[in-house]
Amino acid sequence: MNLTIQIEQQAQVLTLTLARPDKKNALSSAMYLQLTQALRDAESDPTIHVIVLRGQADCFCAGNDLADFVAAGALNAEHPTVMFLHQLSQCPKPVIAAVAGLAIGIGTTALLHCDLVYAAPDCRFQLPFTALGLCPEAASSLLLPKLLGYQKAAQYLLLGEAFGSFDAERFGLVNQVIENDQLFALAAEKAAKLAALPSEAVMQSKKLLRQPQQQLVQQVLHHELAVFEHLLQTDDCQQALQRFFQRPKS
């Protein structure tokens, strides 16, 4: 299998790099499975204290590989995307994201489940679900209004308008904006700092931060997926996907 996730451990930090630059790191089923397994392994490995999720210096993630996503079948517990969302959203160890360039769809919503997010100035965040005849996922219909307020969340989830790094920093989605050539070094520095702290204290603190809404997050995530699957069968969605697949390749 052609690996599209690079996995590297240095000291107590595990780095997961999306490595499909020819497709702008659009996530395939194979990539979701690799990410899910890596997160599972990290959860049970006492030598790993922190996880870093990143792409390249010019692109984080262009969202789902839609053809692959549709071909993967029903959005049940065995669907690779569903498995990844549940694993990431319940990861007990801190996850740091380093984001540059495109962060589309799940490239944005996955950040809601990361604990620290650092971004380059050139990021383009976008949630184009309704344009595809679909609805929010990854519990973003719950988490984004809590973070941004209802009106801003509606602007990005209903209209699907893009926003940049400095807006994301102002909203609280991003901790810090830093130049592209310094992004990964900063993420590594923060990861090393976090990894050096007593790991049980860090994990328990993350649990306390997340616990008040963890059950609700899982419920909303599950409900969104049910609505998402229903919408996938509608004429509006099928027509939108057909238009997407017929677009000239850039």
UniProtKB/TrEMBL annotation:
Subcellular location, in the record's words? Peroxisome
Give the species: Rheinheimera riviphila
Identify this protein by name. Enoyl-CoA hydratase
Q: Give the main location.
A: other
Residues in coiled coil: none
Q: Which UniProt keywords apply?
A: Isomerase, Lyase, Peroxisome
UniProt key word Nucleotide-binding: no
Which family does the record claim for this protein? Belongs to the enoyl-CoA hydratase/isomerase family.
Question: Which InterPro entries did the record assign?
Answer: ClpP/crotonase-like_dom_sf (IPR029045), ECH/Chromodomain_protein (IPR051053), Enoyl-CoA_hydra/iso (IPR001753), Enoyl-CoA_hydra_C (IPR014748)
The record's listing under SUPFAM superfamilies reads: ClpP/crotonase
- What terms describe the molecular function in GO for this protein? delta(3)-delta(2)-enoyl-CoA isomerase activity; enoyl-CoA hydratase activity
Q: Which Pfam families match?
A: ECH_1
Known EC number(s)?
4.2.1.17
